[in-house]
Amino acid sequence: MSDRSAIAGARPESALLFKTGEWNFDTLKRTFDAIENIAINELGLDPYPVQVEMISSEQMLDAYSSIGMPVFYHHWSFGKRFTRDETMYRKGYSGLAYEIVINSNPCICYVMEENTMTMQALVMAHAAFGHNHFFKNNYLFKEWTDADGILDYLNFAKSYVARCEEQHGIAAVERILDAAHALMDHSVNRYGRRPRPSFAAEKKRAEERLEHQRTTYNDLWRTLPRKPKSESAITPEMEHARRKLGLPEENLLYFIEKFSPALKDWERELVRIVRNIAQYFYPQKQTKMMNEGCATYVHYRIMNRLYDLGKISEGSMLEFLSSQANVVFQPDFDDRRYSGLNPYALGFEMMRDIERIVTDPTDEDRAYLPEIAGTGDVMGTLKTVWANFRDDSCIAQYLSPNLMRKMRLFKLADQSEAPHYLVDAIHDERGYARVRRALARQYDPGERDPNIQVSDVDLKGSRRLVMTHQLHNDIPLSEDDSRAVLGYVADLWGYDVQLLGIGANDVTKYQYDASPRI
Amino acid sequence: MNIVDRRLNPKGRSHTNRQRFIRLVRENIKEAVVRSIKERALGDVDTKEVVNIPRKRIQEPRFHHSSQGGTREHVHPGNKEFVAGDQLPKPEGGGGGGRSREGSPDGEGEDDFRFTLSRDEYLDILFEELELPDLVKTYLKETVAFQTTRAGFTASGSPRNINMVRTMRHSLARRISLHRPTTDELEVVAKAIAELEGRADRTEAEEKKLGELRIAHAQLERRMKRIAFIDPVDLRFNRYEPTPKPNARAVMFCLMDVSGSMSEYMKDLAKRFFLLLHLFLSRKYEHVDVVFIRHTSEAKEVDEETFFRSAETGGTVVSSALAEMKRIIEERYPTDAWNIYAAQASDGDNYPSDSETCTRILREDLLPLCQYFAYIEVVDEREAGMFRSEGNASLLWRDYKTVADVTLNFTMKRVFSKSDIFPVFHQLFAKNQKVA
Asked: Under a CB-based contact definition with an 8 Å cutoff, are residues B272 and B347 in contact?
């Protein structure tokens, strides 16, 4: 008896939130409250209200196929994804995610019924507080996504698409959606738009211009010989048209939605729906590493704190640690399992590294990051980072020499003509800056996605749409796919479409053409 | 915060999307199903089918960088021995530095997209291929009659299904793991207390011990009360599950003329016919045996592969097959245990003097034993025009006709194309409807 009470004394059973792996709604609620207490009162997080939804594995498979959203319009490509995921899952090639979290207000957090109670605690800390805080506070999400309205909008989109299918047939709707999906990646606004001048302001400006012409009129100008018109020169007229169309335009679906001569009104609205959804997901693409880093760091802190408070047992802690080790596992480049940097691993390491610099900096850190080194306010610093950076800027700012050494990062240059790769820089004094810059660029969607813009439209004649791919570092587009996408653009535009690959010194490297399929 | 239990919400939200996907690749699926008709054994038609879709057909192209050409930079983890300036040979076969991203040279995998059709999806397309009427489709897809059988244990159920052994086993395990004191333990303490109390002169140490024992006793009693002997979580119930009702057995005889005059096209038609009959029978009977008998001038029992594949030369004596069938029935399939069905496919050729033997065996020996005997005469497409009219019918046809006119369980039909196959079943099907 006495032995037993001695062990129990170290970790009194009564303080435990849960004792077995089985969960029920009581333990879920109790655990959530304990996690919330730590997240809000100790870590000072600022999340949206949470709605935890318990789902089965079948429903998780369903959720996968519609990009995790609770409602979504129907399309065959989601069926394809579902079919693939289902096959993989049934054959045991891949497991399912433990949770899915949606950037909405209230924040919806799906958890799976198969999870053990420890895993439920982990995913609630991870998603309902980590991701949730990030969604609510990061500047990209604040600026570009509307967490209050997204679910309503998706509902609208779903019923709108369904209505169009009823009226015009599934094939007609699919024709537009197939094409719009192909352009999704290139249909986001990367920067805020200049506000459009209002009609009144426009009118006033035109009048002022006329007045200016009138007051500065001089008949002498009329007598000057005119320059002969040259073929290639851009006439003021064309220049004016270009400006009216807002060219060059990098948001392809926006341009098509506004100016395509072929689209009917309902088709325009479909294009707009796809474009809006692309825009909603764009911040997630830009902050994958940080978002996961933030969530992983938060759940790591919370689980450890729960353990320190004696609220979870040694067994649960071990289960958590084993899962944590899997999540942040980063194989080396020469490992068979290597498939690029693991965003969870890099993100978590960066957050831990910032924590270290804030609390226990070395001289190197003081020299490198004087503004945060040794300030002691870990959560304050991290919250600033989570609010004001995205993947590339966060790496450029905070990837410390210490972490580069720890992960043994090195930069490889690959010139297509050269017979070998060149190790350009490694984790040493001469290489830090270059490795950091290269890694930041690697995480910048602006660098990763090809730079394609609508550059010209032949308004007078053939109505041909011209797009330009500005080659970066001479990297071309993949030809087959580009031709296929171009076909879709032509379908939406209704007239011929051309894509020019422009290399260094304005040399045209390639040119693809497509005509609309009727 | 709010916890919502969504588990009871309908699943299969992706069903519509999947259906659309399948519609899109219908042509490929059809190919796969048609191929499966040719390649599969009759018995395993009723299962799933793996379909390969060429990636090209269902690609979702995007503008993206090619994996070749240009200058790129990559940052990798786990450097071991490299220093700045080292040169590493590129792996054979070119490929960009992006080993992190692309598996194949273009980043566009050429692998086919593979997936499995469910039974329903497969049968739908198969039936469409067999050109079946709708009513029949529902009949074939319908699930069979069920009977409840024992199927393990469950944690909830009606009290009359409670399984005491399992329940007590769980109760015991729980009591051990939660350290519920046993009555023996309690008794030991109680006895010690009684013994001490019984003593008139207790030393101070004994007095102290008595106090401790009383506390321990109270603790044990409280613990015993708190931890129930049987808790609702211990309860286990027998579980019953509906299982398909076992049905009588059936044997299906496939008879086919394999002499040189049967073309591949005719054999394919015949195979579809056999396949459909098999599907029907496996709906009705739990166990269906299939016997393949092929004949030229003499008959032989063969396996399925040989039956459909190899061609033979020689004359045609139909009665040899009938005699062989009779022999096999007598040997292996007593009529009290087996329902016997037969399907015969031929191009109608027969040795002239054989007619009488044929009709005699049929009428006297086989038809009384059989539930149903179907004869189809397959006619090559090219000759279809010539032979449409009854007057041009073959010798065997005219002989069989005399049998068909006087018996109920004999059907015959000339088959020119796929759509002619099903009507042969009409009679059989109509009969089943009456029985059911």
From this structure: no
